[in-house]
Amino acid sequence: TQLLEQSPQFLSIQEGENLTVYCNSSSVFSSLQWYRQEPGEGPVLLVTVVTGGEVKKLKRLTFQFGDARKDSSLHITAAQPGDTGLYLCAGGEGTYKYIFGTGTRLKVLA
Amino acid sequence: DSGVTQTPKHLITATGQRVTLRCSPRSGDLSVYWYQQSLDQGLQFLIQYYNGEERAKGNILERFSAQQFPDLHSELNLSSLELGDSALYFCASSVDGDPYNEQFFGPGTRLTVL
């Protein structure tokens, strides 16, 4: 079974700071997704990346899929309190299964 | 609001008991996924159904079972409950069985086993 490790596990930063969250595996994934989960709610999809080296931007969020499709990063520019939440990466394993990472809990202080 | 509904929102029960969690997918979605989320294990994929048939299985215990009905709603049955089964259980749906497509998550059912 493939594993996805995220780092850091916890991150507390001031509003306006930049941050990067990492998602790493020793195995290759066919695709990778990033989700954000807020307390009391289910995860919400932010982006899907499928091509090695792919970079996608969503407003202040930049997602990158590693060239070898084993890792990914999420960079947030000028973080805001509304960015607070649990960030999860999920990798496609085989045809129908998605494996979720361990999660990064982000808190942005005003 | 994702369009996925789950009932009940909270469930408190005792060890050894059996419970049923219910999920209604978004209108038009054919695939339903079940996940377990606990503090120490993260989000674990349990099982996927597509148009009434089991499509993929993850780390689902033998004490757990699920099914998807003709109207596409799904139920997750948990039996012989143990303290360690306490967790958030999420249902998600997608338009088809392709995991590349977006999964829409429900609000979850919080199960507490005492």
Give a brief rundown of this model.
The complex is a heterodimer of chains A (110) and B (114). Chain A contains no helices and eleven strands. Chain A is mainly beta.
Net shape of chain A? globular
| Multimeric status of the protein | heterodimer
In terms of DSSP E residues, the strand content of chain A is over 45%
Question: How far from one another are the termini of chain A?
Answer: 40 Å
The biggest beta sheet of chain B is recorded as: 7 strands, mixed
Care to count the β-strands of chain A? 11
Largest interface: A-B, 22 and 23 residues
**Proportion of helical residues of chain B:** under 10%
Low-confidence stretches of chain B: none
Total beta strands of chain B: 11
Helix content of chain A: under 10%
* Mean pLDDT value of chain B: 93
One letter per element, helices H and strands E, the order of chain A comes to EEEEEEEEEEE
Q: What value does the Rg of chain B take, in angstroms?
A: 13 Å
Task: For the structure shown, list the relevant keywords.
heterodimer; A: 110 residues; mainly beta; six-stranded mixed sheet; five-stranded antiparallel sheet; B: 114 residues; seven-stranded mixed sheet; four-stranded antiparallel sheet; 53% strand
Please give a structural write-up.
The complex is a heterodimer of chains A (110) and B (114). With 110 residues, chain A is an all-beta fold. Chain A contains no helices and eleven strands. Chain A is globular, with a radius of gyration of 13 Å. The model of chain A has no long low-confidence stretch (mean pLDDT 91). Chain B has 114 residues and is mostly beta strands. Chain B has no helices and eleven strands. In chain B, the strands form two sheets. In chain B, strands 2, 4, 5, 6, 9, 10 and 11 form a seven-stranded mixed beta sheet that branches. Chain B is globular. At the A-B interface, strand 5, strand 9 and strand 10 of A face strand 5 and strand 10 of B.
